[in-house]
Amino acid sequence: MALCLAVTLVHVLLVFLYVAPPNAISRAYSQQVDAWVRPVFEQNWRLFAPNPQSANRQISARTRQTAPDGTARVSGWVDLTAGDDAAVKHNVFPSHTAQNMLRQAWNAYLKTHGGDNQPRSERALMIEKYLRNIAADRVAAQRGGTFDSIQLRVVSRPIAAPGAAGGPPSAATASTRAETRYLPWWKVASHATD
Length: 194
What we know:
This protein is α+β, with helices and mostly antiparallel strands. It contains 7 helices and 6 strands.
């Protein structure tokens, strides 16, 4: 009981230091506070005005199985975003995980990796591993089979400004074309399902 109380008090203190305005204590212990709060307990002040999405993203994955002789068998693409959309559609109480896990993992990847997909910190490596594990687990659950590598493809379609859909084509609407980004092949722990 005492341990639970102590952990709860430390948690509340660290989250308070994270969201409080910068001060001498939060600056002195910023590494410890960040290590505790991120990525699980991250806080922000966007309760009533969240950061809206500026693009619709379709995240797909394909797998590769390398045979002992070196030949590789590559699967077709599996739409991971469609699975999230199906879990939320017509569900009165959709889970936070069904709505946000994949999207938040991708947003974190964008923040921690450059356009060249190179991680530049320990946090970036952790986010990369998190995204890879989500994709591998979902592909294994949907498709089954065996694979040892996975690749992601992200198609981003900008959300048009209100009223832009009815107007004539212009330079502004030309920038609403979909962009496709392919991530490198990532090795995964061998997935084998029935």
